[in-house]
Write a structure and sequence with these properties.
Helices cover about 55% and strands about 10% of the residues. It has helices spanning about 15-25, 40-50, 70-75, 90-100, 105-120, 125-135, 140-150, 155-160, 165-180, 185-190; strands at about 30-35, 60-65, 80-85. Strand 1 (about 30-35), helix 2 and strand 2 form a beta-alpha-beta unit. Helix 7 crosses helix 9, helix 8 (about 155-160) crosses helix 9 and helix 9 (about 165-180) packs across helix 10. The longest helix has 15 residues, at about 165-180. The N and C termini lie far apart (about 45 Å).
């Protein structure tokens, strides 16, 4: 096994061994398969997140499914990102780089979350979250609203006539100020604060 790598896809009867691997060999990133023998990837993510902070290890869920319910379940369990197994090697590397750098993906995950938030009745506004958003600069707030509309960094950059790096910087600062662990949680917070587009 490569130093710093932990194999998560072990059978249910090896659950204690799996958790011990992550505990004893700290890793920066876990690529989590949704379909595994024993417990599924959503439950395994939930267990990892229960023992570790959202910053480390980062968890990317890999699945052949693009179903919203799976995406939402993985995000709720504490996954930092989501990728289809059919992505190209270059897209996989880009996704890993993005998540390890503190970002989140994919567009499917954000779209699923936005779809879930807009399908139901409007959420009751969380006044505490709304107060956190008061700390944002006008530019950060603009970026947050565009993120919550489902746009990626490149699309936001084109719309605001800034670089994607600037968009990412504003988004990261906004996440820090409102206490969101990642982009998906930032979207959720934005809707709960009543600031969605």
């Amino acid at each position: 096994m490569h130093p710093g790598a932990a194999e998560i896809g072990l059978p249910e009867d090896a659950e204690s061994s799996r958790q011990a691997l992550v505990r004893e060999h700290p890793v920066d990133l876990v690529l989590m398969d949704i379909r595994m023998p024993g417990i599924d990837g959503v439950e395994a993510t939930r267990r990892i997140r229960a023992e570790h902070p959202p910053e480390k290890p980062r968890v990317i869920v890999l699945t052949t499914f693009d179903r919203d319910d799976i995406v939402l379940a993985a995000l709720r369990a504490g996954a930092n990102g989501f990728l289809s197994k059919i992505v190209s090697p270059a897209e996989l590397v880009a996704g890993i780089t993005e998540v390890v750098g503190g970002g989140a993906l994919s567009a499917a995950a954000t779209a699923a979350l936005i779809g879930h938030m807009t399908d139901g009745p409007p959420p009751v506004i969380d006044r505490e979250l709304l107060r956190r958003f008061d700390a944002l600069t006008p530019r950060e707030r603009d970026v947050v609203v565009l993120v919550a509309s489902g746009l990626g960094n490149d699309e936001i950059a084109a719309q605001m006539s800034v670089s994607p790096y600037t968009v990412k910087t504003h988004a990261v600062r906004a996440m820090t100020k409102v206490g969101a662990r990642d982009r998906a949680q930032l979207v959720s917070f934005t809707f709960r604060a009543g600031l969605h587009p």
